[in-house]
Specification:
By secondary structure, the chain is α/β, with parallel strands linked by helices. It folds into 2 domains: about 170 residues, Peroxisomal Thiolase, Chain A, domain 1, CATH 3.40.47; about 140 residues, Peroxisomal Thiolase, Chain A, domain 1 (3-Layer(aba) Sandwich). It has 10 helices and 13 strands. α7 runs parallel beside α8. The chain is globular and about 55 Å long. The chain starts with a strand and ends with a strand. Bound molecules: oxa(dethia)-CoA.
Length: about 300
C-alpha cells in the first residue's frame, strides 16, 4: 500500500470542563482515586454541541491549516461510536455542513477507540485510486450522552472531543498499519438508547489486561514490518485510556520518557478522538517536524486494536 503524508491537524474540545471534584459531588469518588488509578484530572462534556459540531470544528481547523480548497478533498471518514443519527453518518452530515462537493466518498467507521487508526488505514487504501489528492480523517465522540452518571466505574473515565487529520498520498512512502479485532461483546460496550444497556458498560480489569498485551504486541508488529526499532521512532502515541496502561506499554517497549506524549490528564478517554487530539497538540507545539516518525497504537471495544506508523 502506498504511503501518506500527514498534512495538517485540528481539534475541538467542548467548553464544559468537569473536574474530578465535580464528579465527586455526583458519585462516590474522589480526586485522589481518579488521578492515581487513571491519571485523569478533568474532562470536557458537551453542553449544546452535538458530535457533528465537534467534528466540524476540528475539520475546519485542519482544512484552514492545510491551506487547501475543499474541492481537493475526495474522501471523508469519521471514526465514532457516538453518532448523532443512526443514519445518515456523521460524515454525511459534516459533508453538508462543511460544504464538501457532491460525489466524494463519505462514511463513518465504528472500531471504538481504535477507530482513528482504522480510518487512517482505510483512507490510505482508498486514496490511491482517487482523483482528488486529499482525505479528511476524523475521530469524534460525544460519549457524555452514553454515560451512566450514577456508575463510578465508568463515568469518571470518559470525555467528549474531536481530532482531525488531513492526509495526502505519497508514492515514495509505504503505509505501515496493522489492524485487528477479537469479537468480544461482554467486556466493553454500549447498546445505545432504547436498549437494555443504553450506557457504556465495562469490565475494567479485563480491558486493562487486554490493552497492555495488545498495544505492546501491535507496536512490535508495526516496528517489525517497518524494519525499525523504538530507537528510530521520534514519538509513540498511545490511545489515551489510562495513564497506567500507557506506562505499562512504555515499560514493556522500553520507550524513553521524551518519546511519549500523554495528555489524558486534561481530556479523559475520548475514544476515537484521543489519538488525533494528541497529534494536534503535538503539531501545535512544533513536535511534528518534517520526516518525524510517529508510532500510533490503540485498542477499543470489540475488542479492536491498531498500530500505524505515521511519517510527517
Ligand atoms: O478505551 C477503553 C476504555 N476502558 C479502559 O481502558 C479501562 C481499562 N481499565 C482501567 O482503566 C481500570 O481497570 C479502572 C481505572 C477502570 C479501574 O482501576 P482498577 O485498579 O482496576 O480498580 P478496580 O476495578 O480493581 O477497583 C478497585 C476499587 C473497587 O472497590 P472495592 O471493590 O475494592 O471495594 C471499586 O469499586 O475501586 C472502586 N472504584 C472506585 N472508587 C472510587 C471503582 N471506580 C471508582 C471511582 N472512585 N470512580
Amino acid at each position: 500500500m502506498i504511503g501518506i503524508d500527514l498534512v495538517s491537524t485540528g481539534r475541538a474540545i467542548p467548553g464544559n470542563i468537569i473536574t474530578n471534584d465535580d464528579l465527586s459531588k455526583i458519585v462516590d469518588t474522589n480526586d485522589e482515586w481518579i488521578t492515581s488509578r487513571t491519571g485523569i484530572r478533568q474532562r470536557n462534556f458537551c453542553k449544546e454541541e452535538k458530535n457533528w459540531n465537534l467534528a466540524y470544528e476540528a475539520a475546519s481547523k485542519a482544512i484552514e491549516k492545510a491551506g487547501i480548497a475543499k474541492e481537493e478533498i475526495g474522501l471523508l471518514i469519521v471514526a465514532t461510536f457516538t453518532p448523532d443519527y443512526q443514519t445518515p453518518s456523521v460524515s454525511c452530515v459534516l459533508q453538508e455542513k462543511l460544504g464538501l462537493p457532491s460525489g466524494i466518498v463519505a462514511f463513518d467507521i465504528n472500531a471504538a477507540c481504535s477507530g482513528f487508526l482504522y480510518g487512517l488505514k482505510v483512507a490510505a487504501s482508498l486514496i490511491e485510486g482517487q482523483d482528488k489528492p486529499y482525505a479528511l480523517v476524523i475521530g469524534s465522540e460525544q460519549i457524555s450522552t452514553r454515560l451512566d452518571m450514577t456508575d463510578r466505574n465508568t463515568c469518571v473515565l470518559f470525555g467528549d472531543g474531536a481530532g482531525a487529520a488531513i492526509i495526502k498520498k505519497n508514492d515514495n512512502k509505504k503505509f505501515v498499519g496493522i489492524l485487528g479485532s477479537e469479537g468480544n461483546v461482554e467486556a466493553l460496550g454500549c447498546e445505545g438508547h432504547g436498549s437494555d444497556k443504553p450506557y457504556v458498560y465495562m469490565d475494567g480489569k479485563k480491558v486493562f489486561k487486554f490493552a497492555v498485551q495488545n498495544i505492546t504486541k501491535v507496536a512490535k508488529q508495526v516496528l517489525e514490518e517497518a524494519d525499525l526499532t523504538v530507537n528510530d521512532i521520534d514519538y509513540v502515541v498511545c490511545h489515551q485510556a489510562n495513564e497506567r496502561i500507557i506506562r505499562s506499554v512504555q515499560k514493556f517497549l522500553d520507550i524513553p520518557e521524551e518519546k511519549l506524549y500523554i495528555n489524558i490528564y486534561n481530556y479523559g478517554n475520548t475514544s476515537a478522538a484521543s489519538i488525533p487530539i494528541v497529534l494536534d497538540e503535538m503539531n501545535e507545539k512544533g513536535l511534528l517536524k518534517a520526516r518525524a516518525k510517529v508510532l500510533c497504537v490503540g485498542f477499543g471495544a470489540g475488542f479492536t486494536w491498531g498500530g500505524v506508523l505515521l511519517e510527517v
